[in-house]
Amino acid sequence: MASEQELNATSYIQHHLSFNAQSVGDSAFWTLHVDSLVTGAILGVVATALMWWVVRGATSGVPNKRQAFVELLFGFVDDQVKGIFHGKRDFVAPAALTVFVWVLLMNAMDFLPVDIMAWILTHVFHQHEFRIVPTADVNTTFALSLSVFLLMIYFSIAVKGLGGWIHELFCAPFGSNPLLWPFNFLFNMVEYVSKPLSHSLRLYGNMYAGEIIFLLLWLWAATSVSGAFFGAVLGVGWSIFHILIVVLQAYIFMMLTIVYISMAHESH
Amino acid sequence: MNINLTLIAQAISFAIFILFTVKFVWPPLMKAIEERQKQIADGLAAGEQGKQQLEASGKRAAEETVKARARAAEIIAQAEKRGLQMIEEAKNSAKAEGDRLIAGAKSEIQQEVSSAKEVLREQVAALAVSGAEKILQREVNAQAHAELLNQLKREL
Asked: Are A131 and A125 in contact, with CB atoms under 8 Å apart?
Protein backbone atom coordinates (compact mmCIF):
# COMPACT_ATOMS: atom_id res chain seq x y z
CA MET A 1 0.00 0.00 0.00
CA ALA A 2 1.16 3.45 -0.77
CA SER A 3 2.05 4.88 2.57
CA GLU A 4 1.77 8.54 1.67
CA GLN A 5 -1.94 8.20 0.91
CA GLU A 6 -4.50 8.78 3.56
CA LEU A 7 -5.88 5.40 4.47
CA ASN A 8 -9.60 5.01 4.19
CA ALA A 9 -11.98 2.55 2.63
CA THR A 10 -12.32 4.42 -0.62
CA SER A 11 -8.64 4.90 -1.16
CA TYR A 12 -7.93 1.28 -0.22
CA ILE A 13 -10.36 -0.09 -2.75
CA GLN A 14 -9.46 2.45 -5.34
CA HIS A 15 -5.82 1.64 -4.88
CA HIS A 16 -6.37 -2.05 -5.39
CA LEU A 17 -8.58 -1.52 -8.39
CA SER A 18 -6.36 0.79 -10.36
CA PHE A 19 -4.31 -0.61 -13.19
CA ASN A 20 -0.69 0.01 -13.86
CA ALA A 21 -1.57 2.05 -16.93
CA GLN A 22 1.13 3.33 -19.22
CA SER A 23 0.10 5.81 -21.85
CA VAL A 24 1.65 5.17 -25.23
CA GLY A 25 -0.36 7.61 -27.33
CA ASP A 26 -2.51 10.68 -27.31
CA SER A 27 -5.99 9.40 -26.57
CA ALA A 28 -7.32 7.26 -23.77
CA PHE A 29 -7.29 4.22 -26.05
CA TRP A 30 -3.52 4.26 -26.42
CA THR A 31 -2.92 3.02 -22.92
CA LEU A 32 -1.41 -0.28 -21.88
CA HIS A 33 -2.29 -2.06 -18.65
CA VAL A 34 1.19 -3.33 -17.93
CA ASP A 35 0.01 -5.42 -14.96
CA SER A 36 -2.55 -7.39 -16.97
CA LEU A 37 -0.14 -7.82 -19.85
CA VAL A 38 2.83 -8.93 -17.79
CA THR A 39 0.87 -11.29 -15.54
CA GLY A 40 -1.00 -12.73 -18.49
CA ALA A 41 2.16 -13.21 -20.51
CA ILE A 42 4.07 -14.79 -17.63
CA LEU A 43 1.24 -17.19 -16.86
CA GLY A 44 0.78 -18.06 -20.50
CA VAL A 45 4.47 -18.66 -21.04
CA VAL A 46 4.77 -20.71 -17.87
CA ALA A 47 1.74 -22.84 -18.76
CA THR A 48 2.64 -23.48 -22.38
CA ALA A 49 6.33 -23.98 -21.64
CA LEU A 50 5.50 -26.43 -18.87
CA MET A 51 3.21 -28.41 -21.12
CA TRP A 52 5.73 -28.26 -23.91
CA TRP A 53 8.46 -29.53 -21.60
CA VAL A 54 6.32 -32.42 -20.43
CA VAL A 55 5.10 -33.22 -23.93
CA ARG A 56 8.57 -33.24 -25.45
CA GLY A 57 9.51 -36.10 -23.16
CA ALA A 58 6.17 -37.84 -23.68
CA THR A 59 6.29 -41.55 -24.25
CA SER A 60 3.65 -43.89 -25.52
CA GLY A 61 4.77 -46.36 -22.87
CA VAL A 62 4.06 -46.06 -19.18
CA PRO A 63 3.73 -42.34 -18.45
CA ASN A 64 5.23 -40.69 -15.38
CA LYS A 65 3.02 -38.65 -13.08
CA ARG A 66 3.84 -35.40 -14.83
CA GLN A 67 2.86 -36.77 -18.20
CA ALA A 68 -0.21 -38.48 -16.77
CA PHE A 69 -1.38 -35.17 -15.36
CA VAL A 70 -0.97 -33.37 -18.67
CA GLU A 71 -2.61 -36.29 -20.44
CA LEU A 72 -5.53 -36.06 -18.06
CA LEU A 73 -5.89 -32.41 -18.96
CA PHE A 74 -5.61 -33.19 -22.66
CA GLY A 75 -8.11 -36.00 -22.40
CA PHE A 76 -10.55 -33.79 -20.50
CA VAL A 77 -10.41 -31.03 -23.08
CA ASP A 78 -10.39 -33.45 -26.00
CA ASP A 79 -13.49 -35.21 -24.67
CA GLN A 80 -15.34 -31.91 -24.30
CA VAL A 81 -14.41 -30.92 -27.83
CA LYS A 82 -15.34 -34.35 -29.16
CA GLY A 83 -18.78 -34.05 -27.58
CA ILE A 84 -19.55 -30.72 -29.22
CA PHE A 85 -17.47 -30.36 -32.32
CA HIS A 86 -17.67 -32.95 -35.08
CA GLY A 87 -14.78 -32.50 -37.39
CA LYS A 88 -11.02 -32.40 -37.38
CA ARG A 89 -9.92 -31.26 -33.94
CA ASP A 90 -6.38 -30.32 -34.96
CA PHE A 91 -6.98 -26.67 -34.23
CA VAL A 92 -10.07 -26.47 -32.06
CA ALA A 93 -8.93 -28.85 -29.33
CA PRO A 94 -5.51 -27.25 -28.70
CA ALA A 95 -7.12 -23.82 -28.86
CA ALA A 96 -9.65 -24.91 -26.25
CA LEU A 97 -6.82 -26.31 -24.12
CA THR A 98 -4.96 -23.02 -24.33
CA VAL A 99 -8.06 -21.07 -23.41
CA PHE A 100 -8.82 -23.33 -20.48
CA VAL A 101 -5.33 -23.41 -19.01
CA TRP A 102 -4.62 -19.77 -19.51
CA VAL A 103 -7.94 -18.52 -18.17
CA LEU A 104 -7.71 -20.93 -15.26
CA LEU A 105 -4.28 -19.65 -14.28
CA MET A 106 -5.26 -16.01 -14.71
CA ASN A 107 -8.38 -16.57 -12.61
CA ALA A 108 -6.33 -18.41 -10.01
CA MET A 109 -4.30 -15.27 -9.40
CA ASP A 110 -7.31 -14.22 -7.35
CA PHE A 111 -6.25 -16.65 -4.63
CA LEU A 112 -3.07 -14.73 -3.89
CA PRO A 113 -3.69 -12.41 -0.94
CA VAL A 114 -3.89 -8.94 -2.43
CA ASP A 115 -2.14 -7.03 0.31
CA ILE A 116 0.83 -9.37 0.55
CA MET A 117 1.20 -9.24 -3.21
CA ALA A 118 0.89 -5.44 -3.06
CA TRP A 119 3.64 -5.33 -0.44
CA ILE A 120 5.93 -7.54 -2.52
CA LEU A 121 5.23 -5.56 -5.65
CA THR A 122 5.78 -2.28 -3.87
CA HIS A 123 8.96 -3.21 -2.04
CA VAL A 124 10.59 -5.67 -4.43
CA PHE A 125 9.44 -4.48 -7.84
CA HIS A 126 8.62 -0.86 -6.86
CA GLN A 127 5.25 -0.99 -8.52
CA HIS A 128 2.62 0.89 -6.54
CA GLU A 129 -0.28 -0.03 -8.70
CA PHE A 130 -0.41 -3.56 -9.97
CA ARG A 131 -3.47 -5.76 -10.33
CA ILE A 132 -2.53 -9.37 -10.50
CA VAL A 133 -5.78 -10.81 -11.86
CA PRO A 134 -5.70 -10.28 -15.63
CA THR A 135 -9.19 -11.68 -16.12
CA ALA A 136 -10.58 -8.97 -13.83
CA ASP A 137 -9.45 -6.59 -16.55
CA VAL A 138 -12.16 -6.19 -19.15
CA ASN A 139 -9.49 -5.75 -21.80
CA THR A 140 -8.19 -9.26 -21.27
CA THR A 141 -11.60 -10.89 -21.41
CA PHE A 142 -12.55 -8.90 -24.48
CA ALA A 143 -9.25 -9.79 -26.09
CA LEU A 144 -10.09 -13.45 -25.59
CA SER A 145 -13.72 -13.22 -26.64
CA LEU A 146 -13.00 -11.05 -29.68
CA SER A 147 -10.28 -13.47 -30.77
CA VAL A 148 -12.84 -16.25 -30.52
CA PHE A 149 -15.26 -14.01 -32.41
CA LEU A 150 -12.73 -13.57 -35.21
CA LEU A 151 -12.18 -17.33 -35.28
CA MET A 152 -15.95 -17.75 -35.52
CA ILE A 153 -16.13 -15.48 -38.55
CA TYR A 154 -13.03 -17.07 -40.06
CA PHE A 155 -14.42 -20.59 -39.76
CA SER A 156 -17.88 -19.49 -40.96
CA ILE A 157 -16.34 -18.15 -44.14
CA ALA A 158 -13.84 -21.00 -44.47
CA VAL A 159 -16.53 -23.65 -44.17
CA LYS A 160 -19.46 -22.06 -46.00
CA GLY A 161 -17.63 -19.68 -48.30
CA LEU A 162 -18.13 -15.94 -48.25
CA GLY A 163 -21.34 -16.25 -50.28
CA GLY A 164 -22.70 -18.96 -48.04
CA TRP A 165 -21.97 -16.93 -44.95
CA ILE A 166 -23.66 -13.81 -46.30
CA HIS A 167 -26.57 -15.92 -47.50
CA GLU A 168 -26.92 -17.29 -44.01
CA LEU A 169 -26.80 -13.79 -42.51
CA PHE A 170 -29.90 -12.85 -44.50
CA CYS A 171 -31.78 -16.11 -44.87
CA ALA A 172 -31.44 -17.76 -41.47
CA PRO A 173 -33.09 -18.40 -39.12
CA PHE A 174 -36.56 -17.25 -40.31
CA GLY A 175 -36.45 -18.16 -44.00
CA SER A 176 -35.24 -16.94 -47.37
CA ASN A 177 -38.25 -14.76 -48.25
CA PRO A 178 -36.89 -11.30 -49.22
CA LEU A 179 -39.41 -9.71 -46.86
CA LEU A 180 -37.70 -11.52 -44.01
CA TRP A 181 -34.17 -10.47 -44.91
CA PRO A 182 -34.02 -7.42 -42.61
CA PHE A 183 -35.31 -9.42 -39.68
CA ASN A 184 -32.88 -12.23 -40.31
CA PHE A 185 -30.02 -9.81 -40.58
CA LEU A 186 -31.04 -7.96 -37.45
CA PHE A 187 -31.39 -11.20 -35.56
CA ASN A 188 -27.97 -12.39 -36.67
CA MET A 189 -26.38 -9.08 -35.78
CA VAL A 190 -27.84 -9.22 -32.29
CA GLU A 191 -26.47 -12.76 -32.00
CA TYR A 192 -23.04 -11.77 -33.28
CA VAL A 193 -22.82 -8.83 -30.89
CA SER A 194 -24.18 -10.66 -27.88
CA LYS A 195 -21.86 -13.63 -28.22
CA PRO A 196 -18.53 -11.90 -27.54
CA LEU A 197 -20.16 -9.49 -25.11
CA SER A 198 -21.66 -12.16 -22.90
CA HIS A 199 -18.60 -14.36 -23.37
CA SER A 200 -16.22 -11.76 -22.02
CA LEU A 201 -18.42 -9.96 -19.52
CA ARG A 202 -19.42 -13.19 -17.78
CA LEU A 203 -15.80 -13.97 -16.98
CA TYR A 204 -14.92 -10.38 -16.20
CA GLY A 205 -17.92 -9.91 -13.92
CA ASN A 206 -17.23 -13.05 -11.95
CA MET A 207 -13.58 -12.27 -11.45
CA TYR A 208 -14.16 -8.64 -10.68
CA ALA A 209 -16.86 -9.47 -8.16
CA GLY A 210 -14.61 -12.03 -6.54
CA GLU A 211 -11.87 -9.47 -6.22
CA ILE A 212 -14.22 -6.89 -4.74
CA ILE A 213 -15.52 -9.32 -2.15
CA PHE A 214 -11.97 -10.13 -1.09
CA LEU A 215 -11.22 -6.43 -0.81
CA LEU A 216 -14.30 -5.84 1.31
CA LEU A 217 -13.36 -8.72 3.60
CA TRP A 218 -9.83 -7.38 4.05
CA LEU A 219 -11.29 -3.93 4.66
CA TRP A 220 -13.36 -5.39 7.44
CA ALA A 221 -10.30 -7.22 8.73
CA ALA A 222 -8.55 -3.90 9.10
CA THR A 223 -11.18 -2.46 11.44
CA SER A 224 -10.72 -4.46 14.63
CA VAL A 225 -9.49 -7.72 16.14
CA SER A 226 -12.88 -9.35 15.81
CA GLY A 227 -13.13 -7.91 12.34
CA ALA A 228 -9.77 -9.48 11.51
CA PHE A 229 -10.97 -12.81 12.89
CA PHE A 230 -14.24 -12.83 10.98
CA GLY A 231 -12.56 -11.39 7.94
CA ALA A 232 -10.04 -14.24 7.98
CA VAL A 233 -12.71 -16.89 8.50
CA LEU A 234 -14.93 -15.49 5.78
CA GLY A 235 -11.90 -14.99 3.59
CA VAL A 236 -11.14 -18.68 3.83
CA GLY A 237 -14.77 -19.48 3.07
CA TRP A 238 -14.83 -17.19 0.09
CA SER A 239 -11.48 -18.57 -1.15
CA ILE A 240 -12.79 -22.10 -1.05
CA PHE A 241 -15.95 -21.05 -2.84
CA HIS A 242 -13.82 -19.09 -5.24
CA ILE A 243 -11.95 -22.24 -6.26
CA LEU A 244 -15.24 -23.39 -7.71
CA ILE A 245 -15.83 -20.09 -9.47
CA VAL A 246 -12.30 -19.94 -10.88
CA VAL A 247 -12.46 -23.43 -12.35
CA LEU A 248 -16.08 -23.11 -13.40
CA GLN A 249 -15.53 -19.82 -15.20
CA ALA A 250 -12.46 -21.19 -16.98
CA TYR A 251 -14.52 -24.26 -17.94
CA ILE A 252 -17.46 -22.15 -19.13
CA PHE A 253 -15.15 -19.92 -21.12
CA MET A 254 -13.58 -22.94 -22.81
CA MET A 255 -16.93 -24.59 -23.49
CA LEU A 256 -18.38 -21.44 -25.03
CA THR A 257 -15.27 -21.10 -27.17
CA ILE A 258 -15.81 -24.62 -28.49
CA VAL A 259 -19.54 -24.09 -28.91
CA TYR A 260 -19.14 -20.83 -30.81
CA ILE A 261 -16.47 -22.25 -33.11
CA SER A 262 -18.47 -25.41 -33.76
CA MET A 263 -21.62 -23.34 -34.42
CA ALA A 264 -19.64 -21.47 -37.04
CA HIS A 265 -19.02 -24.81 -38.77
CA GLU A 266 -22.71 -25.68 -38.97
CA SER A 267 -24.83 -24.36 -41.76
CA HIS A 268 -28.51 -23.69 -41.34
CA MET B 1 -14.12 -0.36 -17.42
CA ASN B 2 -11.98 1.28 -19.98
CA ILE B 3 -11.15 -0.39 -23.26
CA ASN B 4 -7.68 0.39 -24.49
CA LEU B 5 -4.66 -0.99 -26.31
CA THR B 6 -4.32 -3.72 -23.69
CA LEU B 7 -7.09 -5.55 -25.52
CA ILE B 8 -5.09 -5.83 -28.71
CA ALA B 9 -1.89 -6.74 -26.89
CA GLN B 10 -3.67 -9.47 -24.94
CA ALA B 11 -5.28 -10.73 -28.12
CA ILE B 12 -1.86 -11.00 -29.73
CA SER B 13 -0.42 -12.96 -26.84
CA PHE B 14 -3.52 -15.15 -26.87
CA ALA B 15 -3.00 -15.86 -30.56
CA ILE B 16 0.65 -16.70 -29.92
CA PHE B 17 -0.22 -19.08 -27.09
CA ILE B 18 -2.87 -20.79 -29.20
CA LEU B 19 -0.49 -21.19 -32.13
CA PHE B 20 2.24 -22.54 -29.88
CA THR B 21 -0.11 -25.06 -28.35
CA VAL B 22 -1.50 -26.08 -31.73
CA LYS B 23 1.95 -26.51 -33.22
CA PHE B 24 4.16 -27.82 -30.44
CA VAL B 25 2.16 -28.96 -27.44
CA TRP B 26 -0.89 -30.76 -28.77
CA PRO B 27 0.42 -32.99 -31.61
CA PRO B 28 3.26 -34.87 -29.83
CA LEU B 29 1.23 -35.80 -26.79
CA MET B 30 -1.77 -36.75 -28.87
CA LYS B 31 0.53 -38.91 -30.94
CA ALA B 32 1.90 -40.57 -27.82
CA ILE B 33 -1.60 -41.09 -26.44
CA GLU B 34 -2.86 -42.53 -29.70
CA GLU B 35 0.16 -44.81 -29.94
CA ARG B 36 -0.48 -46.03 -26.43
CA GLN B 37 -4.15 -46.58 -27.23
CA LYS B 38 -3.09 -48.61 -30.24
CA GLN B 39 -0.63 -50.59 -28.15
CA ILE B 40 -3.29 -51.34 -25.58
CA ALA B 41 -5.76 -52.32 -28.27
CA ASP B 42 -3.15 -54.52 -29.93
CA GLY B 43 -2.29 -56.10 -26.60
CA LEU B 44 -5.92 -56.85 -25.86
CA ALA B 45 -6.40 -58.27 -29.34
CA ALA B 46 -3.27 -60.41 -28.93
CA GLY B 47 -4.53 -61.65 -25.58
CA GLU B 48 -7.87 -62.54 -27.10
CA GLN B 49 -6.13 -64.29 -29.97
CA GLY B 50 -3.88 -66.18 -27.56
CA LYS B 51 -6.92 -67.32 -25.62
CA GLN B 52 -8.59 -68.53 -28.79
CA GLN B 53 -5.43 -70.28 -29.89
CA LEU B 54 -5.14 -71.95 -26.51
CA GLU B 55 -8.71 -73.13 -26.77
CA ALA B 56 -8.17 -74.39 -30.30
CA SER B 57 -4.96 -76.20 -29.45
CA GLY B 58 -6.58 -77.75 -26.39
CA LYS B 59 -9.36 -79.03 -28.57
CA ARG B 60 -6.86 -80.32 -31.09
CA ALA B 61 -4.85 -82.01 -28.37
CA ALA B 62 -7.98 -83.76 -27.13
CA GLU B 63 -8.79 -84.84 -30.66
CA GLU B 64 -5.27 -86.12 -31.16
CA THR B 65 -5.45 -88.06 -27.91
CA VAL B 66 -8.68 -89.70 -28.98
CA LYS B 67 -7.18 -90.51 -32.35
CA ALA B 68 -4.00 -91.87 -30.79
CA ARG B 69 -5.98 -94.00 -28.41
CA ALA B 70 -8.00 -95.43 -31.27
CA ARG B 71 -4.86 -96.07 -33.26
CA ALA B 72 -3.21 -97.79 -30.31
CA ALA B 73 -6.23 -100.04 -29.85
CA GLU B 74 -6.13 -100.84 -33.54
CA ILE B 75 -2.44 -101.66 -33.38
CA ILE B 76 -2.96 -103.90 -30.37
CA ALA B 77 -5.81 -105.71 -32.10
CA GLN B 78 -3.71 -106.16 -35.19
CA ALA B 79 -0.80 -107.47 -33.14
CA GLU B 80 -3.06 -109.93 -31.38
CA LYS B 81 -4.42 -111.09 -34.67
CA ARG B 82 -0.97 -111.39 -36.10
CA GLY B 83 0.17 -113.34 -33.03
CA LEU B 84 -2.67 -115.76 -33.39
CA GLN B 85 -1.92 -116.08 -37.05
CA MET B 86 1.72 -116.79 -36.33
CA ILE B 87 0.83 -119.42 -33.78
CA GLU B 88 -1.50 -120.98 -36.28
CA GLU B 89 1.15 -120.89 -38.95
CA ALA B 90 3.73 -122.41 -36.62
CA LYS B 91 1.30 -125.12 -35.67
CA ASN B 92 0.60 -125.87 -39.29
CA SER B 93 4.21 -125.96 -40.30
CA ALA B 94 5.11 -128.10 -37.28
CA LYS B 95 2.38 -130.51 -38.18
CA ALA B 96 3.52 -130.65 -41.79
CA GLU B 97 7.10 -131.22 -40.66
CA GLY B 98 5.98 -133.94 -38.32
CA ASP B 99 3.98 -135.58 -41.09
CA ARG B 100 6.94 -135.36 -43.39
CA LEU B 101 9.20 -136.90 -40.75
CA ILE B 102 6.71 -139.65 -40.08
CA ALA B 103 6.41 -140.42 -43.79
CA GLY B 104 10.24 -140.54 -44.11
CA ALA B 105 10.53 -142.84 -41.15
CA LYS B 106 7.79 -145.04 -42.55
CA SER B 107 9.49 -145.40 -45.92
CA GLU B 108 12.82 -146.07 -44.24
CA ILE B 109 11.21 -148.75 -42.16
CA GLN B 110 9.70 -150.17 -45.32
CA GLN B 111 13.12 -150.21 -46.94
CA GLU B 112 14.70 -151.83 -43.92
CA VAL B 113 11.95 -154.43 -43.88
CA SER B 114 12.38 -155.25 -47.54
CA SER B 115 16.18 -155.42 -47.31
CA ALA B 116 15.87 -157.64 -44.22
CA LYS B 117 13.46 -159.85 -46.23
CA GLU B 118 16.04 -160.03 -49.03
CA VAL B 119 18.75 -161.05 -46.61
CA LEU B 120 16.47 -163.53 -44.98
CA ARG B 121 15.48 -164.95 -48.39
CA GLU B 122 19.12 -165.44 -49.33
CA GLN B 123 19.93 -167.06 -46.01
CA VAL B 124 16.88 -169.33 -46.28
CA ALA B 125 17.92 -170.25 -49.81
CA ALA B 126 21.45 -170.95 -48.65
CA LEU B 127 20.11 -172.95 -45.75
CA ALA B 128 17.79 -174.88 -48.05
CA VAL B 129 20.63 -175.55 -50.47
CA SER B 130 22.97 -176.69 -47.71
CA GLY B 131 20.16 -178.81 -46.28
CA ALA B 132 19.49 -180.31 -49.66
CA GLU B 133 23.22 -180.75 -50.21
CA LYS B 134 23.46 -182.61 -46.97
CA ILE B 135 20.53 -184.81 -47.97
CA LEU B 136 21.64 -185.38 -51.48
CA GLN B 137 25.42 -185.30 -50.76
CA ARG B 138 26.22 -188.03 -53.08
CA GLU B 139 23.77 -187.89 -55.81
CA VAL B 140 23.34 -184.20 -56.37
CA ASN B 141 25.99 -182.42 -58.27
CA ALA B 142 25.93 -178.78 -57.23
CA GLN B 143 27.15 -177.70 -60.57
CA ALA B 144 24.62 -179.79 -62.48
CA HIS B 145 21.70 -178.58 -60.44
CA ALA B 146 22.70 -174.89 -60.03
CA GLU B 147 20.07 -173.94 -62.56
CA LEU B 148 17.35 -175.62 -60.56
CA LEU B 149 18.56 -174.15 -57.29
CA ASN B 150 18.63 -170.59 -58.58
CA GLN B 151 15.07 -171.05 -59.82
CA LEU B 152 14.08 -172.25 -56.36
CA LYS B 153 15.83 -169.24 -54.76
CA ARG B 154 13.80 -166.85 -56.91
CA GLU B 155 10.56 -168.56 -55.99
CA LEU B 156 11.24 -168.22 -52.28
From this structure: no
Which range of residues forms the domain containing residue B62? 27-155
Q: Which of A35, A55, A73 to mutate to test the interface with B (most CBs of B within 10 A)?
A: A55
Cβ contact A147–B11 (<8 Å) = yes
Give tens-digit pLDDT for A82-120: 999 888 888 999 999 999 999 999 999 988 888 888 888
Subunit contact B8:A44, Cβ cutoff 8 A? no
Q: Is residue B144 part of a domain?
A: yes
In chain A, the number of structural domains is 1
A40-72 tens-digit pLDDT? 999 999 999 999 999 888 888 888 888 888 889
Angle at which helices A138-171 and A181-221 pack, to 10 degrees? 160
Residue B15 falls inside a structural domain:
no
For residue A26, tell me if it sits in a domain: yes
- Residue A227's Cβ-side half-sphere holds a number of Cα atoms within 13 Å equal to 9
Q: Does B1 map to a domain?
A: no
CA distance A178 to chain B (A): 38
Q: Residue A79: inside a domain, yes or no?
A: yes
- Domain assignment of residue A121, yes or no: yes
Q: What is the pLDDT of residue B52?
A: 96
Could you list the active site residues of A?
198, 202, 206
| Alpha carbon distance, N-terminus to C-terminus of chain A | 56
pTM over 0.90: no
Q: pLDDT tens digit string along A110-146?
A: 888 888 888 888 888 877 778 889 999 889 999 999 9
Does B149 fall in a domain? yes
What are A219's strand-pairing partners? none
Residue A28: list chain B partners with CB under 8 A: 2, 4
* Beta-carbon separation of A59 and B5 below 8 A: no
